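A quick word before the example. In earlier lectures we treated sequence and structure as two separate objects. From today on, think of them as two lines of the same record. Here is Serine acetyltransferase written that way.
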Amino acid sequence: MHQGLWALLQYRVAHAIYRSALPAVVKQPLLVLAVAWQKAVEVTTGISIKYRTRIGTGFYIGHFGSIFVGPDVVIGPMCNISQGVTIGVSGRGERRGYPTLGERVYVGANAIIAGRVTIGDGAVIGANSLVTQDVPPNAVVVGSPLKIISYKGSAAYLDPEAETGA
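And the structure line, produced from the sequence above:
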């Protein structure tokens, strides 16, 4: 089975426990077990997704390893991340916090998205980019400092038929 599926399965179960209305006497031991399972999955897959993270449907992890998604990150539906990606807390004052990714966002290999930033629907974060500022919808961004190189969006990254017209 694909490592991303293991990590997502563990996340979905742990998140369901976290969001449940179970009595605390039942919920707390289940969360302890879920965190232990999360650590085992993290060690074997190199993927760490905290149970407090909010992830929409259709989330896809394309490759094995070195992926960290912080506890208060929000990821919209149909997003895709590659290996080496970190999505976590950073910043000071009002900018301190966790990222929010819109729908159909593609995040390239080894990219870092840090702080209270919003990534617009359909955006593409290029490989090895450092994102510490908001990204507009359908923007394709690269580098550090971040630079918008187009507004072609993520369709060609997420829909194989989009590029060929098939």
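Notice the following. The domain at 53-156 is CATH 2.160.10.10 (UDP N-Acetylglucosamine Acyltransferase; domain 1). We will return to this example when we discuss secondary structure assignment.
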